[in-house]
Design a protein that fits this description.
- Helix content is 56%, strand content 0%.
- It is built from two helices and no strands.
- The chain has helices at 15-28, 43-66.
């Protein structure tokens, strides 16, 4: 199946940092990701990774707003 991802990246330079962040969060929640294709992980695990990424990003923004 071909990659049909049409999401436009607002800051393409941030992709490597987000990818590193994804692996960090996956490790924290106990999901083993491998380099490359990870389409074989469960939807539950993918959701745990994505949900925790969003949670951490929101916490960071809230901290930055509180410190201004």
């Amino acid at each position: 199946m071909a990659n049909t991802n049409t999401n436009k990246k607002l800051v393409p330079e941030a992709m490597s940092a987000l990818d590193k962040f994804k692996y960090e969060v996956a490790s924290e929640v106990g999901v083993n990701l491998k380099d490359g294709y990870n389409g074989d992980i469960s939807s539950r695990d993918a959701g745990r990774i994505g949900g925790n990424m969003v949670k951490k990003m929101i916490q960071q923004v809230e901290n930055n707003m509180a410190n201004k």
